[in-house]
Automatic annotation (TrEMBL):
Family matches, as NCBIfam families: acid_CoA_mut_C
Stated name of the protein: Cobalamin B12-binding domain-containing protein
One Pfam family cited in the UniProt record for this chain: B12-binding
Taxonomic source organism: Halobellus rubicundus
GO molecular function: cobalamin binding; isomerase activity; metal ion binding
Amino acid sequence: MSADAEHGGRSRPIRCLIAKVGLDGHDRGAHVIARAFRDAGFEVVYSGLHRSPEEIVQAAVQEDVDVLGISILSGAHNTLVPKVVDGLEEYGAFADTLLIVGGIIPEEDREGLREMGVAAIFGPGTPMEETIEFVREHAPERE
């Protein structure tokens, strides 16, 4: 099997960072999505708990990820996600990174996150296959 066929037409697997930012201590969902992404053939790095936006940005840049998935349940998304976006822009990595957010995000906050560049928001109960297909369709292609 060629590398392209093995990776869904890509020259390499989609590389993802699943990140927990801030003081949010619940990471079951992050573990579930990381495992599902791995099982879908993506390369996955998990940040662990209690990471600062700066640490998340550093990890995303160092790992050269295609997708940054932020799992957040604390309600601090309007404070922490903009800091991640600013950091990615500072490193020139924002345009090359598909930014998705999962967790408890009130409907009234979603449009603001999308306007700052969040590609999709996946709440509790989202079918895993929906999230995986979104990533396959929208992750930037790199060599």
